[in-house]
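Quick question, first post here. What does this chain look like in 3D?
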Amino acid sequence: MNKAELIVELASKTGTSKSAAGDALEAFIDIVHRSLAKGDPVVITGFGKFEARARAARTARNPQNGAIVQVKKTTVPVFKAGADLKKIVRGEKKLAAPKKAASKAAPKKAAAKKAAPKKAAPKKAAKKK
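> Answer (accepted):
Ran it through. Tokens below.
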């Protein structure tokens, strides 16, 4: 699933427009970016944890020519899946049935019409012998 498909799914699940769902997704991504840049993790219980990890400086080897290269220390983003997400992916936990999106406006109730009382079917008279 790519970003555009995710926005369409978000819009259908929440009953909002695609532009509103896209804005919400962009806001979420921006919040994660800003938190990780500050060094703060973003934890979504049951889903996972986004965090920034520091990697120490080290020596590495260039695979093309075998030359030894010095790699500088760096910080990288990391996602660690939560327990519920792991169970769902492994098939150990079933997903709940999808909920239908709430409509923006409640449907208008039609004015109740009074039905004319139904006439009872006439009883057949018993035949005399």
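The mean pLDDT is 85.
Helices lie at 3-14, 18-38, 83-90.
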